[in-house]
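Please decode residue identities from the backbone states below.
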């Protein structure tokens, strides 16, 4: 059995932006390398190298989901309500893939969160992160632990650390599983933020 994990970005025609182990995703202002004001949210997202010095997007840049408020998102043309009629899977910056190349698998208890790069329980320092999941039928914004108030996509709460993770939908038996996740990041202090990691965890059977 070989388990395959991958993270990809959408480039306008397909999920062709492969985020490899040596890559990072840069949340920027209007263009690659431009800053985000403290308290603001990114206006663009880019594949980059480990030093975050090269824009690795080729045909087109990754999609961007900029936080507006707990019920709205900016996909690049202004604020829209965060509902399935307005936001599709191809609007999400990242697609997380899991595959067992020999067996069909079931996914349960899946979560998504940001952490400081070393301890999954600790939120990144100097960064507020919010997120939502776009499934085939719904927008999911709730955190784990019975949190039903949409706090994952709420700047007063967010998804910093695994105890505040976004609850992802269970997935029935299949050969490949995808999670389409919208993310938005805001600096809470000045300076380049490098100790920021995103993570998906789940039970598989």
């Amino acid at each position: 059995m070989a388990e395959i994990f991958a993270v990809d970005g959408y480039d306008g025609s397909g999920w062709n932006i492969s985020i490899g182990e040596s890559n990072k995703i840069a949340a920027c202002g209007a263009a690659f390398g431009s800053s985000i004001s403290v308290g603001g949210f990114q206006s663009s997202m880019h594949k980059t190298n480990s030093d975050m010095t090269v824009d690795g997007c080729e045909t087109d840049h990754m999609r961007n989901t900029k936080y507006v408020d707990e019920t709205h998102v900016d996909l690049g043309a202004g604020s829209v309500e965060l509902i399935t009629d307005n936001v599709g899977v191809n609007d999400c910056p990242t697609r997380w893939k899991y595959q067992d190349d020999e067996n069909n698998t079931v996914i349960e208890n899946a979560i998504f969160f940001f952490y400081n790069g070393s301890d999954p329980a600790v939120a990144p320092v100097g960064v507020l992160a919010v997120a939502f999941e776009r499934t085939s039928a719904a927008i999911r914004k709730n955190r784990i632990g019975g949190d039903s108030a949409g706090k994952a996509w709420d700047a007063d709460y967010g998804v910093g650390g695994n105890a505040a993770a976004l609850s992802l939908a269970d997935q029935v038996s299949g050969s490949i599983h995808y999670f389409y996740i919208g993310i938005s990041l805001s600096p809470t202090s000045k300076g380049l933020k490098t100790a920021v990691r995103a993570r998906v965890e789940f039970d598989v059977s």
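Observation: The chain has no helices and 15 strands.
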